[in-house]
Amino acid sequence: MLPPSARADLERLPVVELTAFKDGHALVRREGTAPLNGGVALVDGLPEPVFGTFWPYAKGEGVELKSAVAGYQAVTVNRTPLSAEEILTAAVGTQIIVHESRGEEDVSYAATIVGRPTRSAEEQDRNDRDPAAGGGQPTLPVRGPTILLKTDQGVRVVPIGSITEFTLVGDAPKTIEEQVVKTGLKLRVTAPEPDGEAAVGLSYVQKGFKWVPQYKISLGEDGQAKVVLQAALVNDLIDLEDATVRLVVGVPTFAFAGQTDPISLQVAYDQVNQARRLNALSDFTTDGLMLSNAVQTQMRSSGPRGGERPEAPAPEMAGGARAEDLFVYTLEHVTLAKGERMTVTVKEFEAPYEDRYEALLPLVPPRELLSDDNERRRVGSLVAASTVRHSVVLTNVSDAPFTTAPALLYRDGQILAQSLMTYAAPGGTAEVNLGSAVEVSVDLEESITGRKAEPNLRGMDRFERIALRGSIEITNRRPEATTIRLTKLVPGEVDSATHPAKDQTAERRELGPADIAGLPDSAVNLSRYGVPNWWVSLNPTTEVVWELTVPPGETVEVSYQWHYFWRW
User: Fold this and answer.
1) In angstroms, rounded to a whole number, what is the distance separating the alpha carbons of residues 465 and 461?
2) What does the alpha-carbon distance between residue 390 and residue 411 come to, in Å, rounded to a whole number?
3) I need a labelling partner for 482 at 20 to 30 A (CA). Which of 54, 70, 183, 384 fits?
4) Are 398 and 384 in contact (CB under 8 A)?
5) Can you tell me the distance from the alpha carbon of 17 to that of 27, in angstroms, rounded to the nearest whole number?
């Protein structure tokens, strides 16, 4: 017969606080009061923490944690009996009318269930286990295939499979006790009462819970934008009930991300050994992508497990605070089961903004580099695709940074675009792209105006100085005047540039390697056209910038002249 378990059930420690990062890592703190048995508390649920982040603890006057052992525990659970075998097993002491098959004959008789012969775990360990084999999963009791029934003649040993039908005289059992194996922690503590209770907890970092920021930006006519930050909580880690959740803005640094702590019982020795060999001064480029602050897409949602739960209160914002290079928002009273998703408003504020119109006209390769008509058509398509980009520049006057996140932009209740909000510290600015300004167009024309031989140029011969002229027309079809920042990249040295306003001039400057690296590859890359080595030393890349205000319905033209050297 199944003996009562000599081990207590494992204590489930609830999550009291969780700090969520955007990359999917979370710092989890679970805490509760656990019963002690000789100074030992058994805790249910074994996390899979990042290597080096698992820290158990015990607190209270005179209470101290001595050790934490991860392993397998045999615990007793109560379940609803579903099969005839389970009902018979659970109904010990109950009177029963049995219908038994004996060959071709069916026999019925009254009896009382005595129980099922069972080999206990202790008996199996004593007789069968090799002492040198070490530990492992605990042994579970083994039930035999027969049941003991007491009749007037004595105790019958009946194979359960031969019982075709039975009737219980009285109520059927509602539960059956079974022993199962669970992973858990054995926390050994010193306490004033070794068989009393102690407050114990676990703190660890594990991947599986992330928050996805989302912005809604409503642009007003007075130059003020109403900004709403919403957080989408994605829980694939652990059930939360009335917990505090902290949302971190910033780039987390987990040096051993991807390495699992050995306390989880999931990690292999070579993985731990490899983690130990990592240099603390390395830049962790292997795990760089996992540690980025990039926005991650939301994962597929699934419904809650089990039956319906009582309605949980809505989370409450409890403000935000700076923590070194991070900023932390705090949500109180969060209830969210594993597998569920939640959206909650984090912050609402206003930010001044200004509209910005910009056009970047790419570098047109010298004609000498274009070997065929296909390359000429490709360059022509690149220039024709140049458009005026419309964006809004938001100034962060709040006490919290803007974080990298998708943003929906509205004006007068009408959606304008979905774009990307970029990071901006308090006092900084973030530029949010609205797309192409279709009512503002630019047209470019360039032509050669002359050639001149340059003998003995820097000690080299067979060079020509090729002079060129370009003009750009900007047409504004918007109902109001529009200020545009126009940038033209030129392969060579700019000699002059005109500005339609008499009191203003165009800015000209040669670009260095860092400037070129910051430009889109499609706007400045000449390497695809087979630029010879001497070109770089003789011909700079020059940028010409105009700030233009174009009246509604009008066209403004600017021009520039430049030259480059070509070796024949």
Assistant:
1) 12
2) 14
3) 384
4) no
5) 8
